[in-house]
Amino acid sequence: MTDHDSERQHEEHLKGGSSASGIGAYLLHRAKPHLPPWICVGGLGLAGGGANLMWAGSAGGAVGLTLASVALTGATWWAGKSTGQQRRLHSAITVAAGSAWLTGAALAGPLTGVMPHAFAMGGPVMALSWNIRMVMRRSPDSTGQSSDKGLLEKVGLARTRIGTPKVEANKVTLPYALPAGEATNDDMAKALPRIASALDVPTTAVRMRPDPDSARRGTVTIVPVDMLKTVTWWPGPSNPGGSIAEPLVIGIYDDGRQLELTLPQAIHLLIMGATGAGKTEGAMDVLAEVLTRRDVAVWLSDPKRGQDLGEAFPACDWVVDTPDGSGILIEAVKAAIPARQKWLGDHSYRSWCPEAAEVQNSTDHTCRPDRTACGCPGIAYLLAWFEEAANTLRAVDDDAFTGIAQEARSAGISLIVSMQRASGYQISTDTRASLPAAMCFGVDERDAGFALPTEVLEAGANPGAWGNKRPGYCYLVSAGVDEDLWSTPSRTYRNDPVALDWVARHFAPFRMGIDPVTAAAAAGVAGQLYTGRDRPGQQAEAQDAPEDDDVTTSLVDPEDAGIDPEKDLPEPDDGDDFALVPPDTRPELGTDEAREVIERLLEQWECEGRMVVGPKDFLAHSQEIGRKPTWIKNQVRDMRAAGRLVETSETGRYRIAPALTPA
């Protein structure tokens, strides 16, 4: 029965009939709640008389009853530890007095000496004390109110009931029930800053979690002491050599629990934070954990060219540092999705799992029609990381991530988009919606709504209160993380490039590297930009390679073998500064010859890793091509129609579609 129902019944009793029978019924009804203590006193007197018949003058009975009285009193005191101090003391005194009289009555007799007087005076006193406690505990004016009436009155929730608090180390959790029909959980959310003010704690120290099955119930959590002020350095890999499907430990919550991120569950992650808010160190924590796992490969776009994450470059399968390179990486991810989905489907996987990264020696996961083990190499989980993604989005379509984000999950691909401000001016609403997980550091208050879901902000999350004054403080909203932790402040570990470099080098033998399926898809889009990349360990091998004069000699053109590099060049003769064929008299090349020149240019740019070009790049070589500008522009149009050039989001810029090259 609710407090509202009991109050309604009380009003009905007060308004009952005024006849003699009505008055008698009312008095009897009102007396019933107060009868139990008197019944207990009467039962105690009868028990004393019965005990006297059994144990009068018995030494063993005296010892047993005394021990029983002490044990019962102790048990009452122990059982009352979860109640208030007054109730605990009152209960223990009542039990001690009753058991003492029962022991005396059993041994000497209930009517012997002072025993009847003690019963006649002590019994009613004890019963009345409990009646008075019952009357004082009920006050019609306070029915339905919190036990801390003053605090809730201050914040406009005077009729809210507070349940039994759960007290933990540096955290108090209070169940609440707002008055029915008068307030909702939205009113509690609006009152959180005022509660923090009344308790004199930061606004981020008070948060709530609504009951999903009720519009007026939930819990309020109060963390009075900020335990995140103490810097915690990265303790090292949480699961070295483990799978990427297991949680990454990247920090701690304000109640001491570990801050964990599971990428396959998070799917795609937005990392956001103002300058100085600790976003880079949080990124280093994530990368440091990722690079210790055995079954993951990383593609990294870093417009800052290694200024912060450079130590991780040797451990990444592919790194690009230009806007055009980022656009090609996005196209490579798009191409990798169907290739990886086909591989997973051929091997009877509905989605990527750690077993998909192993050599396929099981008949349950084979691509052969006869269902014998195929022995195909597995595919690694792919992490596509876009650092300072605002630069990338300025160079490509602002919806560049939307399509791949919607399809990448089933292919075992996660996107991490890191930027300072995920505002509507820099990232579209569709793109933001396609990044279901968010790791939000301190931001401008105006950007908080774009970083975190509304329900998390209403529950008390407030990254705008930190700005860049609390480096490393963050909120993590992700599948796989308890919802009550979404609004719980946390802090990432302090990290540095030295640790990232150690991880990149030390765990290189444990990482499986890129798989042939993903590599082929990337090479088919990026060509030399991918196949000519610096692969993990390649730089170290180049540094360890012995110097060999024969290698240098083999790079000399045979025609120049007799030239002395130390000898001065001869003086120029008359006419050396004139072109052999004057530009205005050079004949136009034939159609086939000009096309061959264009194809050689494309191959040259592809070898240089220059995969995005436009008509102006071809026109710069018009003399070499030997045709008029109009003809060259028409050739660009024909190459677009033939698929040799692919449109990009930037007008007048096209991506070269290379022939498939080995990775």
Largest sheet properties: 10 strands, mixed
Name the beta content range.
5-15%
Q: Overall pLDDT, averaged? A: 80
Low-pLDDT segments? 139-147, 537-555, 578-582
Number of β-strand runs: 18
Our measurement of the CA-to-CA distance between the termini, rounded to an integer number of angstroms, reads 72 Å
Any idea what the shape is?
elongated
Domain module count: 4
Supply the number of helical segments. Answer: 25
CATH architecture of the largest domain: 3-Layer(aba) Sandwich
What is the rounded Rg? 40 Å
Characterization of this structure:
The chain is α/β, with parallel strands linked by helices and about 675 residues long. It has four domains: about 30-140, no CATH class; about 140-225, Threonyl-tRNA Synthetase, Chain A, domain 2; about 245-525, 3-Layer(aba) Sandwich (Rossmann fold); about 585-663, Alpha-Beta Complex (Phenol Hydroxylase P2 Protein). It is about 40% helix and about 10% strand. The chain contains 25 helices and 18 strands. The strands form three sheets. Strands 7-6-15-14-13-8-12-11-9-10 form a ten-stranded mixed β-sheet. Strand 2 and strand 3 form a beta hairpin.
Give a topology summary.
Blueprint: H1 3-14, H2 20-31, H3 35-55, H4 59-79, H5 85-108, H6 115-137, H7 149-154, E1 161-162, E2 166-168, E3 171-177, H8 185-199, E4 206-210, E5 217-222, E6 248-253, E7 258-261, H9 263-266, E8 269-272, H10 279-290, E9 296-301, E10 318-320, H11 323-346, E11 381-386, H12 389-395, H13 400-407, E12 413-419, H14 429-433, E13 437-441, H15 448-451, H16 454-458, E14 473-477, E15 490-492, H17 497-506, H18 516-526, H19 528-531, H20 538-544, H21 549-554, H22 591-607, E16 612-613, H23 615-619, H24 622-625, H25 629-642, E17 645-647, E18 654-656
Helix pairs in contact: 3-5, 3-6, 4-5, 5-6, 10-17, 11-12, 11-13, 11-18
